[in-house]
Design goal:
It contains 6 helices and 21 strands. The chain is mainly beta. It has one domain: Adenovirus Type 2 Hexon, domain 4. The termini are far apart.
Length: about 450
Amino acid sequence: MSVVSQNFEFNVEMEGLASRSYRTILPSESSGYGLGDRAIIQIPHTHNGFLNTSNSWINISATFTGLTGTGTGSVNTASQIRMSQIGIYSAIQQINIIAGSNGYVQEIRNFQEIMAMLIVNNTDVNSTLPNSLTCGTAPNDGLNSRLGSFQTVAATNIATQNFSIPLIGLLGSVKHLPLHFLSENLVVEIIFTSDIRNILYSNVNSAVLSLTGGNCAFSVEYDADIIVVNDNAIREIKEASGFNSGIMSWSDTQIQAVNNSVSITEQNTPSISYKQTLVGGVKPKQLLQVLHGGYGQLNGNTDPWQIYNYMYDSFRLRCGSTQYPPRYIEGRAQIKNHISQCFGQNALTLFNTLATSQTSSLNKRQASGAVAEPYLSMGGAGYDFTKFVDTAEGIDTTNKQLITEVNLKANGTATLAMNACTIKRYGVIYSISSDTGQMSVSY
């Protein structure tokens, strides 16, 4: 028979925290915005509250008016106008997060380029229909064309459409953002594009119709899922997170896009030409992935957010004096394999691997305006720095220049310059001070 000692100590082990969840709409500061405007949404301090970012999103309503075009066609003709393949993401030029007096803790410029890269390369076929319903993104048609959705135009207007879009970064990756520990509101800053041709375009060649302009009225709000716990749960969270000792911190990632121009002359050089491009922006201590691709420029009859593998089939990076990889990534198979690794894909299920596009010239460049509904090889290139077994995850780029190296080869007659976009994903540390309640970020 076993006997329990009188010195036996019994402690209750908590299996869960007492909490409740509710949804709330956080409005923007104004009821309406136009092209080029700046929208502000306040996410307030909430007593014992946490923001569930995985179940929160931005609601956007868009009404297009006064569309204009040139050519023999009309913007009111059925099936003439489409929305970009990235849906209403094409309307957002920049999204930032401001943490009180500490300023920006996240600044995502070139938001359209980033979303195009992610949607094309990291969206499984099974997700295309749900995405298109909520965000207006283009469902895959089996031939990798991703031409965007037809718009019903009446008297040069498009009726109000409603979208609900999840975000990336701080408001997309943190499971429970601790609003309770912040002394000031978080501010979501959304900057809309100033040109309607970033959102809409004509799906036919320029001889028939080219979209030239128009207006758009936006309304925007944040649909938030807030979780509130009791006072004892807050005490447990503080002890578990180290907040009682002065600071709460957690690791996360941020993403940044930098553009450089590729001229018409460079694209049309008959022989292979070597091109280096200096990548500006922050130099993080933990660079995780680099993605690279080409985007078209506005002409009214092509989608500027189609992403093109504009280069000849070879790509690599130089960080300081070291090349990654030592030899060029060559051929479509290697390029697709490397960019798949950047997204943790174990199988070729990405849009850019549906290699059923025209293959006579691989269509690596932006489509000519004279070609209606072209099929293009999409996806770009990339390199993953998290696979090194003998180093910490990622590489330290502090005080080092990052350079992309590609070999350009003529592929038809280019009529437009292109933007060579380089996207960096890197590790960051967010922290909240227990003394001031101020949030900060370090790279």
